[in-house]
Amino acid sequence: MDSDGYISDRDTSPSEPESIAEDNPGARTLWFGKHDGKRLDEVDEGYIAWACHPKRRTYAWYNDFKQLCNEYRQWRKEHFPDENPGNAIVWWGRYEGQEFRKMYSAYGHMNFILQSRFKGCRWYFWLTDHTKRYKAWLNHHRRSRQPRVSTGYRRDIGERVDSRDDPVPPQEEYERDDFLVSDTDSVSGADIDSEDDMVTEEEPETLEDEVKNLRYGQEQSSPEDGTDEAVEGRSPSALSDREGEGDDEEDRDESGVEDEVEGEDEDADDESDFDVQYDPANKKARQEGALARIKAKRPVSAQLVSPLKVIRELSSRSKVG
Known about the structure:
Blueprint: H1 18-22, H2 45-51, H3 62-79, H4 100-105, H5 107-113, H6 124-140, H7 189-198, H8 207-221, H9 225-232, H10 236-243, H11 247-275, H12 283-297, H13 307-320
């Protein structure tokens, strides 16, 4: 600092052009702190960020130094418009000594350190300012997309074909394909005969088929099929005998009675079928007659005894005995 209180410029370096050195704010020397007497462009970014922090605004040199830093940044932007802010060296934290663009590519780390709770740190305002500058530089120097094919080249893909592009039909006679199938031949008589052979007359039903149909009709016409099958094998005598015998004798008698009744039914059906001459008109009459015979063999409802009642009587007798 000279006697008038202004910042004195350092002598022009022989390597720098004289026009740049004359108006270069970075060539001015500092007049305070540990870097007193040094050029501004020789001071590290960490110290500049510390001195420009709002916490230092109470110092006498704060406003002049901050203005000097802004002028220096603006001067560099004018004389070095293509300077990449991503090349700046980080002077703190995990990425200390590395380029800023490497830290900027770590999105998770950047989102963390840009939180407002770190405003008290000396590097926070430098980080926010440098981040804005680097984003602006990226937007301005965004790589333009190059077309894969030059604009002067046109693909010869033709035009869409429609009905208007159909050729004119030829005037010559259509060539017949007699070598495959005759165009004039219609359905021949041999084909009709072959189709007639496929249709065969239905053979008359045999006596065995008639018996099966009769039994099927009985099953469909009876409304109490499940009850009839359970009741057919029971008779008053069989139930009375089963009351005095054990469980083993009850099963044996019941199966024997069922086999005997089924045998009688089959014999009666066979005799009636052989006696009656085959006639489709009498089919319904035979079904009704067979149904009447089955109902006649059923025991009266008064003679039926509930199985639960029989079990209770047997258990009571065993307790008394």
